[in-house]
Amino acid sequence: MAGRGWRTRRTTAVAGVAAATMLLVACGNDAGAGSGSGSGDASTSPSATAGDSPTTPPVSTPTAGPSGTPTGTPSAKPSTTPTGKPTRPPVETPTPAKPVRLVTSMLLTGGEVSKADPKRGWAATEGSASTPICGRSSTRGEDVAGALSRNFTTGLDASGGQWLTRYKDAATATTAYNRIVATIKSCKAARPAPTHARKLTENRTLPVGQATTILRWYDYPLPSDPGSEDGGFPYAVTRQGAVVSVLAFREMGKGVKPANFERLTRAAAAHLG
């Protein structure tokens, strides 16, 4: 009995020691496994912070600008070297102005007068035009450099003429034009008869030539002489450059109709260029 009990206690003690030993081994393995896992994470997965590792700069891709040239590529500078010598306009050599010469083609013809005032039988006649009602000064200015004239008539009670005068320059011609117009407006060369009165019935300008004025004097009988005839005296003065043209007509009655006389004035101005 005593022997069996000892062996039993011995067996139990040995078993207890073995169990304790196994427990210690198991505890040691758990501690080693936890320590190895921590060191492995630190070595294989390092923590990344900003600036710890260098970064590769991004590669920029040139983009096309409005002209189609990549903006990243410097454009070529314009050349400052002139390609050739600048050309200069030719210098004109001044020449003295040639004076206008009066020629007969600058005068109205009998046919043109007849066309402007039809069914009157107008025709040009030989010789110089007769002095009009307002005198010789109503046909020319001062310092005349050349003159031409032509006479017209119906062969009955109507007549007229054209006077061309040339001057050294346009300024002198303008002075002559103004003087002629003023002379016609005053018309002191010939006074009407005591039985008649005179009035200016037309005084206007036309946009022909460089200056044109139409004036018309009308002589009419006073009541004291009712049987006397009246008379019409239209004038047209035109300046073109250094030339002045004067038309002066006269006849019994009202004279050449205003519309017809204007056509005559325009035709005369067209001859002056």
TrEMBL record:
<feature type="compositionally biased region" description="Pro residues">
    <location>
        <begin position="87"/>
        <end position="97"/>
    </location>
</feature>
<protein>
    <recommendedName>
        <fullName>PknH-like protein</fullName>
    </recommendedName>
</protein>
<feature type="signal peptide">
    <location>
        <begin position="1"/>
        <end position="26"/>
    </location>
</feature>
<feature type="compositionally biased region" description="Low complexity">
    <location>
        <begin position="61"/>
        <end position="86"/>
    </location>
</feature>
<feature type="compositionally biased region" description="Low complexity">
    <location>
        <begin position="40"/>
        <end position="54"/>
    </location>
</feature>
<keyword id="KW-0732">Signal</keyword>
<feature type="region of interest" description="Disordered">
    <location>
        <begin position="29"/>
        <end position="100"/>
    </location>
</feature>
<feature type="region of interest" description="Disordered">
    <location>
        <begin position="113"/>
        <end position="139"/>
    </location>
</feature>
